[in-house]
Amino acid sequence: MLKAFETMKQAALMSVRNIISNKMRSFLTTLGIIIGVMSVISLVTIVEGVENEVLSEFSDMGAGVLTVNAYGTALKGGLSEADIAEISEIDNVSGVAPSISFSGSAVRNGEVDDEVTVLGVNEVYFIHNDVVSFGRPLYSIDMTGESYVCIVDSDFAKTLFYGENPIGQSVILNGITYKVVGLQTGDDSSLTSSMSRGTNGGRVMIPYKNAMKMSGQALVQSLDVYVEDTDKTNETQTAIEELLYKTFNNNDDSYWIMNLDSLLDTMNSMMSMLKGMLTGIASIALLVGGIGIMNMMLVSVTERTKEIGLRKALGAEPSRIQLQFLFEAIVLSLTGGVIGLILGLVVSAAVSSALGIGFTVSVSAIELGVGFSAAVGIIFGWAPAKKASELNPIDALRSE
Fold it and tell me: pLDDT tens digits, the chain, 400 residues: what are they?
């Protein structure tokens, strides 16, 4: 065991000395490995960062939420209160939030905003969405159809409550007086947002029964269904589809359900394919680097033919000769791998910062890059090392 260790130690030292003695050639040889590993590390890390960012955006949009659009039929153009109640009683449904949206106008102190988006929602919406920065959300007690309260966003506040705190103030929506009880969350939705005057527009959230009366809608065509156990989202979707199928007289063209969990799965699959493709492309550089190592090692064997012949004549075993050249190839490859790893992480961090995405060190990318570089050194260094060990000492000493 000690003899084997000593043999490996000597082979490693001789390999390092030979690499150092040919600095420029060694650097150019490892350049392909450096570029290959750097490409693999940076591409995989950047793609994973983009993937995490995209999936996070999708999750924020509502993973675990089923968006139902019930267009209805000529006989029934949407969902009634009874239909919504049936959906809320389905297993694994934690809440149902109807949504009524239309354009309206708002008036306050002679100031008119005729480009207001009015959104009717219920209390369930606020349980699952933290959208109120100041004031209060809408409660179940507000859903009687007789509670005239609203929540406004910063654009609305800038237009009609310039220089004022909108909470507690009154505004006329489509001819009906509403009291502002909350300010909607947003990039500029602080109480001071109304200090700078805005242009027409903005959004107002009111109880959905009020919105139905205001818009003249008797039925609901859009709602969000919140699931309790996201692992059972598909089963819950199937149950809702069966209910809607019966509700609209076995017409499956009368509704549509969007499952963001399914979109997340599709996105995961697409990103994995993209990552695999980019890794494959970047690995070509590693392959080219491996060929460069093999070429350099073959040249080295040719240049050192006499040295090899002399060592073998003095009793050096073929295995020692082979081990030395194999170590040389591995050291070159691993050196390029480590440099490529460092550069890859630097490039990844810089690109991630430029793109505004999170930077996370990818362990899988590091394992792939460094592992591939070590494999390249062994695979492409084996043939030259084998050739060196098989040289006939007499022929080697006679060579010019």
Answer: 555 556 566 656 666 776 777 777 778 778 878 888 888 888 888 888 887 777 666 655 556 788 899 988 888 889 999 999 999 999 999 999 999 999 999 999 888 888 899 999 999 999 888 889 899 999 999 999 999 999 999 889 988 988 889 999 999 999 999 999 999 876 443 444 444 444 557 899 999 999 999 999 999 999 999 988 877 888 898 999 999 999 998 888 888 888 876 666 777 777 778 777 777 776 777 777 777 777 776 766 666 666 666 666 666 676 677 777 777 777 878 888 888 888 988 988 888 888 888 777 777 777 777 777 777 777 777 766 666 666 665 555 555 5
Q: Give this prediction's pTM.
A: 0.57
| Residue 362, helix vs strand vs coil | coil
CA-based torsion, 366, 372, 375, 376: positive or negative: negative
Distance CA 182, CA 185 (A): 9
CA distance 207 to 68: 19
Q: How far apart are CA 81 and CA 341, in angstroms?
A: 61
Distance CA 309, CA 140 (A): 93
Rounded CA-CA distance 119/221 in Å is: 13
Which segments of 305-355 does DSSP mark as H helices, in order? Answer: 305-313, 318-355
